[in-house]
Hints:
The complex is a heterodimer.
Chain A: E1 5-7, E2 10-13, E3 19-24, E4 31-38, E5 42-50, E6 53-57, E7 64-68, E8 74-78, E9 87-94, E10 104-105, E11 109-113
Parallel strand pairs in A: 2-11
Antiparallel strand pairs in A: 1-3, 3-8, 4-5, 4-9, 5-6, 7-8, 9-10, 9-11
Chain B: E1 3-5, E2 10-14, E3 19-21, E4 24-26, E5 32-39, E6 46-52, E7 60-61, E8 64-69, E9 74-79, E10 88-96, E11 107-108, E12 112-117
Parallel strand pairs in B: 2-12
Antiparallel strand pairs in B: 1-4, 3-9, 5-6, 5-10, 7-8, 8-9, 10-11, 10-12
Amino acid sequence: DSGVTQTPKHLITATGQRVTLRCSPRSGDLSVYWYQQSLDQGLQFLIQYYNGEERAKGNILERFSAQQFPDLHSELNLSSLELGDSALYFCASSGVPGQVDRYTFGSGTRLTVV
Amino acid sequence: AQTVTQSQPEMSVQEAETVTLSCTYDTSESDYYLFWYKQPPSRQMILVIRQEAYKQQNATENRFSVNFQKAAKSFSLKISDSQLGDAAMYFCAYRSSYSGAGSYQLTFGKGTKLSVIP
């Protein structure tokens, strides 16, 4: 157990629907990063939050949004889902930005859009 | 923007033998970190080894070692005495050492699938 908890582990939904993925960072970590792993694009950075504030955006679609709550857990919202959104979504957490040793991944949420 | 390239989509190695996975990257920065992550069928991302660009000495972790060539922007992973449990996807990743915005996201290569033959 890495200490980063992602729920649910698996999610199957239909095109056009909206889903929410949840991530609880490791105790004491303030940063949360979201990554998407798809067959054709590989692992791509989506977005980062630090202590409740957005810090950086990567290749995140406008249909996707995220937030980090006061208890530091984060949610990634995916809307108007398309078949191409099927992927493994990872959350990673770290402590103070720049702390290399504390960058830890969760086990991911497998999203299947049918 | 930084890019990471892994030119070997798949590799195989006999159990107990040595295998080297290749990675090249492109950056204009002088200080950064490089990583190798292992992703077994369980899909968990596991850190194998880390290299700081300012350190000339190659990092080692038990059976895993790297060959870091900064001028050539090359970062290969050597696995010695390969074991069945080493079979997995291996990803090379880059991270800036300093970010004014406080963001330290990883840039990944496409991965190399390693098979270990008994």
